[in-house]
């Protein structure tokens, strides 16, 4: 317990691919104690696992090394600590890459890197199944054994405890794999304020703080529906910061003289993102009650958050499993006015007829007419785009037979010369055949997941 009355945690990445400038801007724009970088989504884990299959030194979010390079001075000389789930499926390799970067800049030995492992269950799948852990799909109830031979990634969502342990052992950089997004923010608060493992309301407050800033600038004006035309200077948008107090209350803000906006509406929009049951937002550490959250305007770009209630965590951890599920290809052509929609619909009829003539049937074929019905489907009505200046005709197929999908990719481009007129958008040529990676959410007993913390210097 540090005795601090305020701890400032800055969010600097909302996904792998977010603004590269954000981490540096967060540590240079004003005082922060921690920089939280969130890189992982469900699909990201499968991408990283496939990268590791090709190269055992890969499997982590490589952007993180550049992010650490941009904030190295703040970590070494200003005491800012970094917590990131950039480790993906290979936290050790990620840590080695950061160490090499630090050494190149004369900072060898100045980083104490906490490396957290144990979330990767892929090597233990058969053991778990043999011991009665069926890892049933949370949506369908089916046992994982149905797709076991196609599983390529399996990671348990772990909570804040191992991050707190790493901080207690002196780490100023913590690299973890598939933690919950919210744990990246909650852990430093738990560490600094000494919150007990059963202090449910305060832990829930830490989770809510993490949820608000886990998507980067989405809570400070980015991707915001409310008054979006008048959000100032999005080109220079400020990423969010939570200023947290020991009693669990906190303020959401951003650095002065940055673009965007932090307001009750922008924070509210982020709160309802991926919320599920508002009474029971389940994490490994605590169950947070979103209906208890109180928001108040705290001044320009400041929102006060208080009143949060929490309850005991469950005895399960969620497991994100990815498995191979066949192949797909998606192609598109653009038809221009006049009668753009009619031309695109004719192209669809022609292509489907040719596929039928070739005897090509697929598990799924989906046609969309972007500009008329792709976003809202039947709700828009196919007549909505009759007078549109242009329509993008997009068609995709999926099937277990890769050869069939590849044959499809040769059929759409010929429509440029042997189909309806006024076509463009074909410069990329034939669409590519891609492997489909499907998502299998499951639960597992907490008792079978053991994390390991190593601190490197």
Task: Describe this structure as you would to a colleague.
The protein is of the alpha+beta class. It has 2 domains: 7-119 and 157-314, no CATH class; 325-440, Alpha-Beta Plaits. The protein is built from 12 helices and 19 strands. Helix 1 (22-28) runs parallel beside helix 3 (63-78). The longest helix has 18 residues, at 340-357.
Distance between the termini: 23 Å
Could you say how many structural domains there are in total? 2
Low-confidence stretches: none
> What's the story with the biggest beta sheet?
10 strands, mixed
How do the strands of the widest beta sheet line up side by side? 11-12-8-7-1-2-3-6-4-19
Estimate percent helicity: 25-40%
Rough shape?
globular
Number of strands: 19
Rounded radius of gyration (Å)? 25 Å
Average pLDDT score: 95
Number of helices: 12
Structural class: alpha+beta
- Percent of residues in beta strands: 15-25%
Write the layout of secondary structure elements.
Blueprint: E1 7-13, H1 22-28, E2 34-37, H2 42-54, H3 63-78, E3 81-84, H4 91-104, E4 113-117, H5 125-130, E5 151-156, H6 161-168, E6 173-176, H7 183-193, H8 200-213, E7 240-244, E8 250-254, H9 264-271, E9 281-282, E10 287-289, E11 294-297, E12 303-306, E13 309-311, E14 316-336, H10 340-357, E15 364-370, E16 390-399, H11 402-408, H12 415-418, E17 423-424, E18 434-445, E19 452-456
Parallel strand pairs: 1-2, 2-3, 3-6, 4-6
Antiparallel strand pairs: 1-7, 4-19, 5-14, 7-8, 8-12, 9-10, 10-13, 11-12, 14-16, 14-17, 14-18, 15-16
Helix pairs in contact: 1-3, 3-4, 6-7, 7-8
């Amino acid at each position: 317990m540090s005795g601090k009355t305020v701890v400032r945690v800055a969010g600097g990445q909302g996904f792998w691919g977010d603004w590269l400038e954000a981490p540096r801007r967060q540590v240079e724009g004003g005082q922060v104690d921690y920089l939280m970088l969130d890189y992982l989504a469900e699909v990201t884990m499968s991408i990283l696992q496939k990268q590791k299959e090709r190269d055992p030194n890969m499997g982590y979010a490589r952007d993180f090394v550049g992010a650490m390079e941009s904030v190295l001075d703040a970590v070494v000389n200003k005491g800012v600590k970094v917590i990131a789930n950039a480790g993906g499926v290979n936290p050790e390799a990620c840590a080695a890459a950061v160490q090499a970067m630090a050494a190149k800049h004369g900072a060898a030995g100045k980083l104490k890197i906490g490396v957290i492992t144990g979330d990767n269950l892929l090597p233990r799948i058969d053991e778990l199944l043999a011991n009665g852990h069926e890892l049933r799909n949370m949506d369908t109830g089916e046992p994982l054994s149905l797709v076991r031979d196609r599983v390529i990634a399996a990671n348990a969502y772990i909570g804040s405890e191992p991050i707190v342990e790493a901080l207690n052992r002196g780490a100023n950089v913590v690299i973890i794999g598939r933690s919950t997004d919210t744990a990246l923010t909650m852990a430093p608060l738990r560490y600094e304020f000494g919150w007990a493992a059963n202090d449910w309301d305060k832990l829930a407050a830490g989770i809510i703080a993490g949820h608000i800033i886990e998507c980067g600038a989405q809570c400070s004006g980015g991707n915001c529906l409310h008054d979006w035309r008048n959000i100032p200077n999005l080109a220079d948008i400020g990423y969010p910061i939570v200023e947290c107090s020991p009693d669990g209350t906190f303020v959401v803000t951003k650095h002065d003289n940055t673009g965007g906006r932090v307001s009750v509406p922008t924070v509210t929009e982020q709160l309802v993102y991926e919320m599920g049951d508002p009474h029971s937002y389940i994490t490994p550490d605590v169950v947070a009650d979103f209906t208890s959250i109180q928001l108040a305007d705290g001044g320009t770009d400041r929102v006060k958050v208080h009143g949060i209630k929490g309850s005991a965590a469950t005895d399960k951890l969620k497991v994100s499993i990815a498995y191979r599920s066949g192949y797909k290809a998606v192609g598109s052509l653009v038809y221009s006015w006049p009668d753009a929609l009619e031309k695109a619909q004719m192209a669809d009829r022609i292509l489907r007829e040719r596929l039928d003539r070739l005897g090509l049937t697929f598990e799924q074929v989906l046609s969309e007419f972007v500009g008329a019905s792709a976003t809202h489907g039947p709700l828009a009505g196919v007549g909505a785009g009759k007078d549109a200046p242009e329509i993008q005709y997009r068609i995709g197929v999926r099937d277990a037979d890769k050869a069939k999908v590849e044959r499809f990719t040769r059929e759409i481009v010929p429509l440029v010369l042997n189909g309806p007129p006024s076509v463009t958008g074909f410069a990329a040529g034939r669409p590519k055949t891609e492997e489909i990676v499907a998502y299998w959410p499951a639960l597992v007993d907490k008792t079978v997941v053991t994390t390991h913390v190593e601190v490197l210097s």
